[in-house]
Amino acid sequence: MLVCYVCCSELCSIAGLRSHLRRHVGLGELVYPVKCCQGTCKSSFRRVFNFIRHLYSYHKGDENRTGNLPGILSSAPSPIGVDDDFSNDSLLQPFHSAGDRTVLATLQSEGADMVAALRANSSIPYSVIPGIIESINSMIGTTVDCVQSETMKLLRGMDVGGNVLTDVEASLKRQSDTLNEPLGFLSTRYKQDKHFDTHPLAVKPETVILGQRYETRNGVIKSVYDSYQYVSVEATLRSLLVNPQYVSMLLRDKYTPGLVSDCWDGLLCKRHPVLGDASKFSIAIQLFYDGMGTTNPLRGQSSMYNVGVFYFVVKNLPNVLNSCFSNVHLVSLCYATDLKTYGYDAVLNKFVTEMRQLSVEGFVGDFPILGTCTIHVCLLQVACDNLALNGLLGFVESFSVDYFCTMCYATQADIQHKFHESDFELRSVAKYSEDVACVATSNSLIHSRGIKRDCMLNQIPGFHATQNFSLDIMHIVLEGIIPVELSCIIFYLCNTHHAVTLAQISARIHTFWSVINVEKCNKPPELNHIDKPGRLYPSMKAVQSWALLKYLPLLIGDMVSNSDPHWLFLLHLSELVDMLFSPVFTEGMITYMRELIADHLAMFSELYGGDDENGIRLKPKHHLLVHLPTVIVESGPLVGMNCLRYELKNSFFKRSSHIVCNFTNICQTLAYRHQQNSLFSKLSNFSIRNIIVVGRSSHDSVGDYECADVLCSHFGVEMTDDVCFAKRVERASIVYTVGHHVVMGIEEEPVFAKIELFVCLPSSDEWFIVVSCMRTVTFHSHYHSYAVEYIYPKVFKVITFDSLADFRTVCCYKTVIEQKTQHFVRLPYHIITAR
Fold first, then answer.
1. For residue 309, which of 286, 338, 332, 343 has the smallest C-alpha distance?
2. How many CA atoms lie within 13 A of 361 on its CB side?
3. Do 812 and 823 contact (CB within 8 A), yes or no?
4. What is this structure's pTM?
5. Distance CA 242, CA 59 (A)
6. What's the CA gap between 30 and 7, in Å, rounded?
7. pLDDT at position 645, please?
8. 671 and 738 share a domain?
9. Who contacts 365 (Cβ-Cβ below 8 Å, separation ≥6)?
10. How many H helices and E strands in the chain?
11. Domain span at residue 815?
């Protein structure tokens, strides 16, 4: 017999267990990861499909083929589409027995789950799904007819006649009628929409009218309504709070004494009138806006179908969970041309109205763990790229003019020689109001000290444009400062100091990425010749620029002198970026960062800011660095407002628009498809990422492994006992395999270790990591990496995933320097731990 890990039901076949699990999926009851639980097997999976494949490979012998599947499934919950709560055309079919209804319910449950997965996929047009349903109905009907025909032929061949043959033929005919077109309730696009739109977790987008205009079509003047799509924040949150696992994540301890590890440690949350009130259960959200092209930009009229997309994330969740696509929620979709015509205020009006109500009154409901309570929702901050942020908040959208900064009154001349935030006059609510009034009363002024208009988001309680302490380090650093400064460094190292050539750098990049076991997909492209400092060719993705900066000291450090000023500037840039991307800060780190940024800007101006033809002025993005320490103090670590996750989310809409190829109302199409994807994510619990997935495991004797003594001491087992072992696990989209290196802890220096094995006791579901410890020799500043040594004989330790100083694996690179083999570990960013 096979066991369901959700409800502990016993199933007699793999097919029966698969159908049973599909019912749990349809009701949103499946808890992830999908666990095997057959005997002592500890394997776990992200999807039911992978679990079923595992069963066929390793548990085929556990089936009991004599069981009666309908009888077992009759006690299972009804699938979505068969409950009385949902109207369904299939309920009009005659049922002649409870068993017949159960078999049909099983087929319909699997069919509904399959269609939900197809509709959630951005690469599949909806127009092909009815054809798939028709083919499946046809195959099922053909199979049933074939079984009926062969059964009757077999009975006649055995000389069975009389009433027995008549009864059998009637029973088979009844089954055939019952199972005829079992997926007929999903046979058309209309029926599919009707079925899924009535699901309790579904949140449909609504059309909001912006205005009316007239168009001439075929010589006839017609009235046309401009509109955008809006998804209710309250409805989205209500559908999420149905999940007990999601609610438990919201209830985690959000404050870290002495450290700044989240927005809740910042001053902005603490002085917020609602979020700072401990007597209220409140949810903080972060709003994002970006413009996005939906068609090929190389073709004509591509900008006609550009759209503006608004997302939000729940800041109560850890930053690592908010990087998941399922936790980035849609607010609205609108045409970019409508934004220019009607302005941001018209599109934001419905959002602002809802947020004002949610901030003051909240919404009441009965939720798991929480019980009946009132939940307040507040807008904490707006995170966008620099251009979108200025436009959304009402500031000038040109960065070549004065007063471009949303946090101070900086001018182009000032940013060339002022490198501390205290050197600039900061914006305030009172001064902001004066500037808005100045523009409103003037007939000639376009802006007053950078402010063009009042931001409508200021009407939301607790939010103001001048107190939106949010800057995006993806666009500022990864796509702005790093390419500019790396081009300067490489240009002078290659052309002036002749320490290295571009061919050597490209060759080192190729060799390096062929041997490391982390960040394989972030390999930078081969560099082109740099004629003039200031631009790096070819252009790179943000993660590629980051990877090139991180590993460039290891790539060419042995070819450059310790005293080279450009090399020292590269190391200074590496230190600065490591600190900017740190997930945790102390007060001392923030103070040090202010001086580090000032020194860096001064070094850049001294090295590359000359008056000759190669001289480079400091960019506006350089100036924004001076505000980052204040942003951390107010809003928490900068990775929490990084726009990388939002930019990646746009890929769903771009892929969908290329698939549907219908731009009559592309905003409505994309919004609806996104909400279907969101429904499937809720049913599949994709938002829960802090789970461990083990694809394949084995049960072996403890004494068979080199680390047996440590295992016996840690778990209290004997050498002859069997323990579950694995060589590859996945947690929060991070894949850990044997041979990877991790940061085990932070003492005076980071403590590194190599993963040797993953272990789980038969009586437990918790997985442990067996590591071999490494010795940290020193921090080698010239390579901006830690020199480490392996310890022989190996010193093993058993640790948990939560005890790691950082959840990411690190790069350990073996190289030969001065005829001596050395190992270097490069940290991705500055890491500290709570003591």
1. 332
2. 8
3. yes
4. 0.87
5. 34
6. 10
7. 86
8. no
9. 238, 241, 372, 373, 375
10. 26, 23
11. 692-826
